[in-house]
Amino acid sequence: MYLYASFETRPNGGKPVLELRRLRLLRELSIRGTIAEVADSLSYSPSSVSQQLSQLEAEAGVQLLRRTGRTLKLTAQAQLLVAHTETLLEAMEQAEADLAGTMSSVAGTVRLAVFQTAMLALMPPVLRELRQKYPQLRVEMSQQEPADALEETSSRSFDLVVAEQYSGHSAPHYSNLDRRVLTHDPIRLALPVLGSVGNEDFDRVTLLEHAASLPWVVEPDGAASRHWALQACRLAGFEPDLRYETADLQAHVELVQTGNAVAMLPDLVLRSNQHTLRTVDLPGAPARTIFTAMRHSSTKSPGIQAVRNMLHAQPGMSDANNSVILATPKDFDTVE
Q1: How many CA atoms lie within 13 A of 37 on its CB side?
Q2: Could you say which of 73, 80, 162, 180 would form a disulfide bridge with 114 (CB–CB 3.0 to 4.6 Å)?
Q3: Which residues contact 19 (CB under 8 A, 6 or more apart)?
Q4: Cα–Cα distances in Å, from 87 out to 24, 110, 126, 212?
Q5: Nearest-CA neighbor of 253 among 225, 281, 274?
Q6: How many other C-beta atoms can be found within 10 angstroms of the C-beta atom of residue 185?
Q7: Where do the domains of the chain lie?
Q8: What architecture (CATH level 2) is domain 109-336?
């Protein structure tokens, strides 16, 4: 949440000073599009946001917003101010990182956005190690969809994101974010274990195309994993029976375990369920890329780097001493 200083004037003639906190509001409006969304993202009332933007317009002495029907459009002068605001915010973040680097201990708060699998499979040991090694460092973690998390990290709602992308479905790129591959996570066809009563149709599956007549569980429409799985089935020559839909991969596991569906699941999910599921390798040994991203202007921040480095040092991740990257498929989108 931003705190807003009172209206200031220059001593030489009383010319208004552009208030950085209000400039931030203008920048948020350029990103989010509506005052209501700006207010929601910053926990302000819409009327307060409107008042602050009106005050900024008075300080600037030019029209910054133009109403077209029910939509507010930024004028050319407003867009100019937004560009300068980004430069100012980057400079401030770099200064804060340099200052933190002079301290004797790693402290402060790191706001982390992660997708569900990372929260379940990657973060528990990382958080434990961080708490032991950096007791003055506070990590706040929120589960977010990768595309949303990248946008929010770019706009400074988060400091670090753990995101994913699938072959042919690159996650959004933002010029102010530094992306670094964490690992490649193989994807396999998941089925119930052999021999359960009533699961004879599942037991016959040894290739992807054998699952053509079985019910499937997938993530909701719009998810990259769903589109990727659908295309994989079509390349195998069939249209899958998409009977169940949920974003909760633990629900996917439960539906597969109980003989209600098949699913394409990544190894980070399968690893903790290897004794209760059967897997079939998919053509081409596909995998998803998991990566971290942070703003270039915060790369010297000791706290953010501590969290990122701890993630990359985990077994099977990119910086682990005993690491073997889980998969390196040739057809994968890179994030470099």
Answers
A1: 12
A2: 162
A3: 4, 5, 7, 8, 55, 56, 59
A4: 11, 22, 33, 53
A5: 274
A6: 25
A7: 20-99, 109-336
A8: 3-Layer(aba) Sandwich (3.40)
Which residue has tokens 């910086």?
A: 319
Confirm if 166 and 228 have CB atoms less than 8 A apart.
Answer: yes
Give strand ranges (E) for the chain: 65-68, 71-74, 108-114, 137-143, 160-165, 177-192, 215-218, 241-245, 263-266, 277-280, 287-295
Q: Which numeric CATH code is attached to 20-99?
A: 1.10.10.10
Strand pairing report for 263-266 and 177-192:
antiparallel
pLDDT tens, N- to C-terminus, the chain (336 residues): 333 333 344 444 555 678 888 888 888 888 888 888 888 878 888 888 888 888 888 888 888 888 887 778 888 988 898 888 888 888 888 888 888 878 888 999 999 999 999 999 999 999 999 999 999 999 999 999 999 999 999 989 999 999 999 988 889 999 999 999 999 999 999 999 998 888 999 999 999 999 999 999 999 998 889 999 999 999 999 999 999 999 999 999 999 999 999 999 999 999 888 888 999 999 999 999 999 999 999 999 999 999 999 999 998 887 765 433 343 333 333 333
Query: Which amino acid is it at 191?
Result: L
